[in-house]
Design brief:
The structure holds 2 protein chains of 2 kinds.
Chain A lengths: L5 H24 L13 H28 L2 H33 L7 H22 L3 H31 L14 H41 L1
Helix pairs in contact in A: 1-6, 2-3, 2-5, 2-6, 3-4, 3-6, 4-5
Chain B lengths: L1 H20 L1 H18 L7 H31 L3 H7 L4 H31 L7 H26 L5 H12 L1 H15 L4 H29 L3
Helix pairs in contact in B: 1-5, 2-3, 2-5, 3-5, 3-6, 3-7, 3-8, 5-6, 5-9, 6-7, 6-8, 6-9, 8-9
The chains are: A mainly alpha, B mainly alpha.
Amino acid sequence: MKSIKPLYLALAVLTFLLIEGALYMALLQAPTERTMGDVQRIFYFHVPSAWVSFLAFFIVCIASIAFLRTGKAQWDRLAASSAEIGILFITLVLLTGPLWAKPVWNVYWTWDARLTTSLILWLIYIAYMMVRRYTSDPERGAKFAAVFGIIGFLDVPIVYMSIRWWRTLHPAPVIGGGGGLAPEMKQALFFSLFAFTVLYITLLLLSLRIRSVEDKIQALKNKS
Amino acid sequence: MQTLTQFYTILHKDLLQELRSKEIITAMLVFSLTVVVIFNFVFDPGSAEMRTTAPGILWVAFIFAGNLGLSRAFAREQENSMMQGLLLCPVDRSLLFTAKVIGNILFIGLVEIITLPVMIIFFDLAVGRAWPLLLAILFLGTAGFATVGTIFSAISANTRSREVMLPIMLFPVTVPIILAAIKSTSYLLAGRETADIWPWLRLLIGFDVLYFFVCFLLYEYVVEE
């Protein structure tokens, strides 16, 4: 048994420290929002989660294109790992959103463009994982998932645009008030964005490693 | 010229098979009517609400029925290894895809043409001079839905839980088509001006073109060996 490579260990420690820093800045350092109060602090985790999920799904699309072009298993592993992490973060977005919305909007959910798009995004990538898992032949499953991953990602801006159109024709609650952020709030947000991005990279590398080991074991099993 | 003949041959095969068995069309028709009947219980009879929501019910019926038809489109090819036979034909894959899409549009379109008058009677809709535009919206919505549906149906036919996978993949991805189709139909039937309908029609056309192009490129990866 080889021990965890120093690179992974270093990354894990770095991520831990960054997340601790983000927690400190978001919960203690940033000023309390005047009208919303402390509940507004969820914003420092909600927005970075949304950013990471978009980044993750973008990587799924790029890796899917590369996989279809080259046929190399490493691209498929990247797509699968990134999709998994993307689902985790979009789930966090969908959970933290209502927690904030209830005290501020007085409802957990409203069919606003951003909320609806996030929910549809969640559904699309759940379907993505299902396609992969429910295809008997893993190689075909990888190809199907890649095709679905590309179509699904292209769909995201169109979904957003169409729902926005639909909603701008009707009155809808305004998100965030549209006002400027205090400098300390901005700092906390950007630090949190950075910390979450590093967290994504760490999770991605670990997940990739698990998948490549799994593939190796499968290859050995098939040999014997 | 040869391409055209090949295209026609594949399309003809699908149409002939369906005309002989009438398996898919019948199921889709009965199903879409069932959906309408179920929806009728949601509203008080003769209420104004019913008329304003009728376009939505119309499209829900078409989309559910379309999903049913699409799930059969490739599942049928799996029987007796018909897909292998098709792939062995010296025909370009993209041609195969286009023929399948056209076939699916025709099937769903036929169901729509039969169901639509029934719905107009049931929901007391006034179409009047809007007929040409209504048919155009029906075509554009169906074309987009069938394009994405064709490629996903080829995928779901190869998964373990065939019929279950198709709507799970298809419905979230086709949200823009469903939304644009419902909106343009309801504006049209409510007698709104063309200027209001146009943005939604543009979205439908844009979606159709983009998705035909993307699915056309990706199709060969779905139907290998």
